[in-house]
Amino acid sequence: MSEYLPQDIVMKILSRLPPKPLIKFRCVSKSWHLMISTPHFINLHTQHALLSATPEMMLLRRYSKLLHTEVYSVHAAAAAEFRDAGIEIEYPFRDRVRFYYRIVGCLNGVVCLLDDQFGQPDAAAVQLWNPAIRRKLTLPPPPSSLDEDPSMSMVALGFGFDAGRSDYKVVRISYLYGDCEYLLPPRVEVYALNSGSWHTVEGEIPHNCVVEYFWSQVFIHGNVHWVAYKIIGKNNKRENMIMSFDVSREVFDEMLLPEPLANELPLNLGAVDLGGVLAVVQYDERVRGTRCSIWGMRAYGDVGSWSRDYTISLDGGIGRIIGAKQNGEVLLTTRAGALVAYSGVGGRYEDLGISGTKDSFYAGMYNESLVLLAEGSVARQRLPSDSDSDSDSDSDSDNDLECQSSIEDDEEEDCLGDVEKSEFRMQGSMSQYLSVFFRRPYINSV
User: Fold this and answer.
1) Is residue 65 predicted with pLDDT exceeding 50?
2) Is the pTM above the cut of 0.85?
3) In angstroms, rounded to a whole number, what is the distance separating the alpha carbons of residues 152 and 254?
4) Closest CA to 212 of 147, 121, 281, 284
5) Cys bridge to 167: 60, 162, 321, 359, which one at CB 3.0-4.6 A?
6) Which domain holds residue 299?
7) Domain check: are 213 and 260 in the same one?
8) In the sheet where 110-114 sits, what is the strand order?
9) Given this model, what pLDDT does residue 82 score?
């Protein structure tokens, strides 16, 4: 076909195909291999995928107590029977993390993962992963991490897409402890996929804090958003707000929250994306909550458009609000680990028949893409029979496999069977600590 059609026509035709056939088509010829691997073609393919009329998909993650691992699946976001539309995705990071990763975000088919859910993260534990083409990228340690004591710092991340440069960026906000308080402003660094390196953000950094351990981020309208708080005046008055970061201009901004949220205990708040709407969840209690309110910003950037859209009460206890289906139903987990869809019309609940641990669930919009085709390495599930190794494996992989096979019966139960206890222990201890922390005198250091 390439002998009779101009190169640009061939490129436009191929850019409308799914990623998996394109990976195979690279074997057709050297010219096709080079073309499909170029950043220009990958960006063109991503743009077509985002503008496509095909139904949007949703990526769902949970931790399976039966399999002792994370399980990823893709569902049709608009499907009436969410439970019947799942297609499981091969997970390549088995046995490389205790229980499961924190999912920072998912953009254009790329998932950003951080190993900090069950203890202090490794400085190099940020992963970018494209499940559709089985590519992954481990980010290098940022420069500031070389002189940070993990036990004396707290890190929050954001994951965004710079549309003007077709660049994916990871924003790292690092807070250091001093005199039993955070030192402000924090350090801010950005990893840009195009350059493959970290750089320090220049300009004004807000004297705001993101709540430790419970932080969440939302990327919409070109900005990463976190719920944060700051101290105002000599009376140490605390005020909550939305802190945003424009990933193109690399500048921070603030958005006011409605009064009931501005003075709430910060650890009871969390940012969430409800079908493209920036929203904040207000829990009655973060760890043992039974009730929550969801506030949505109906007109982005207009602080007067905040409205309380939902008030949800669940007798068995609420785990977390994790997102929304295309029909507006809110997805949430119960304390018992069930995935539930809540409809504001009549206050109806539907058990979706999907179970996991309550804090391991993640749901986000998902579109297959070719991102990481050039930058990433092969990411596939490793089985005990595998004899090959990759760049991210430990050098002593044979010993690792022996250790893995020996963790059985009682040992396996002791090591892997306490994920729910670990979730509760981490959240409970952090909630108690922060409840006291927010009542301490505040120290501000520049």
Assistant:
1) yes
2) yes
3) 27
4) 121
5) 162
6) 51-376+424-437
7) yes
8) 102-107, 110-114, 126-130, 135-138, 377-378
9) 67
